[in-house]
Amino acid sequence: MRETLSRRLCALITEGVFKPGDRITERELCERLKASRPSIRETLRQLEAEGLLDIYPNRGAVVRTLSVATVLEIWEIRLALETLIAERFARHGTPEQIERFENSIGHMDAALRSKDRTRIKAAKSAMFEAFASGGNNEMLAAYFRQINVRISFLWSSSLMVPGRPAESIGELQALLTAIKNRNPEAARAAVVLYNEHAKAIGMYGLRVFEERKEVERANPRKR
Question: Rounded to an integer, what distance in angstroms lies between the CA atom of residue 220 and that of residue 212?
């Protein structure tokens, strides 16, 4: 039950329902997730321990806000995890896992073309899940999933840069080709290239997000 609730709450953060700085009440989660207050409370404590939430007395849970320095640290860890997954995928991925990953890239391409931010976040989450499963290491996938949730509010940032959506799909296709060819070195190189570009776009998106938050704090009635 706790694992299921944790995954569902993480999905709400990934999909942008709850963003950094947003307050999450136990009552709202009980109604949304159809769970008891003790179960919700336990789930919130778990996500606090994982660094996704801050819990304040008499205020409740708040999605943790990330600084530029923290995002860069997270991205460094993310790259290490993702390159390991890519290498393992190239060595051990099954035909079914490769097909799932290929289909998820197609769905990601369609979502980017639609320019629908909610659809993009859902497609990107599914794509990363398909990719992580190919590593055939559940603990590795769990860490990767946790890292992605923390920076998921930046996932639609590529729409801000002309040409980036198509470029990102090309980089993912290169990763897919390396995996199909059972070439761990090429898969690792493809992941490094994708991550460096994504990090640059993500940092730009973080600045835009922070500017928007400043405007909201200055004009609370317009939120």
Answer: 12
